[in-house]
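Cross-posting from the chemistry board since nobody answered there.

I work mostly on the small-molecule side, so proteins are not my area. We synthesized zinc ion and want a rough idea of how it might sit in this target. Sequence and SMILES are below. Is it possible to get a predicted 3D structure of the two together?
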Amino acid sequence: MGVSARSDASAVTGKRCPRTTCAKRGVVQPRDAFHKDRRNKDGLESWCKACVRQYNEENKDRINAYRRERYRANREREREKSRTYYATNDAYREKALEKDRAYYRANREKIAAYDRERNQRNAEKNLAYNRAYLEAHPEKSREYNARYHARKRGATVESVSYERILARDGHWCYLCENDVAPNEVSYDHVVPLSRGGAHSEANIKVVHRSCNSRKLNRLLSELKLPFQNG
Ligand SMILES: [Zn+2]
Ligand SMILES: [Zn+2]
């Protein structure tokens, strides 16, 4: 007694775990004692769940090493596979993002401490990397500096593209009303940040380097325009 009709029925169609160390070897076990495996005729793995678990536990290191090795050997394909899956499966992506967010919420301080520690450990490497990156991308460097200084002054900071500003203004300086050679191009905050101007494309115009340094932090109303060159 005490055995439900259902597990009774599955025990009839069940099978024995063949593993020599199985505690229930030789005993017919219910179907739900086995994981499913469609490759087998009866649709079940041959070892019972407990034996599979025990095997995996005992061979954890070997299994992990094998997985890592297989991943390394097919890295690009594996990455492509997960990228495609991630990109095409909205539900999966939403779930993954939510999991990330929950993890972040629960471990905010731990993550911050880890980031700090890692930044300290890699301080020199990061500095060299950043320097090389900014040297290779002068436009990014300019924008990065400008945003930093604008934020420090409490100015409104918008995303700015100097390429777009140059395309809009052309190589022409609005302060002296002359053409600007490519190596003389500079960008001026029309209303200076220190006077409440925004770091925005609307408030930035192409000028000569020399005109930029002549203008200082003055407003247009405080200047005698156009500047006379020379
Ligand atoms: Zn077993
Ligand atoms: Zn000029």
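Reply from a structural biologist on the board:
Welcome over. Reading the output above for you: Residues 17, 19, 22, 24, 47-48, 50-51 surround zinc ion (ligand 1) (CB under 6 Å). The longest strand covers residues 185-189. Happy to explain the token format if needed.
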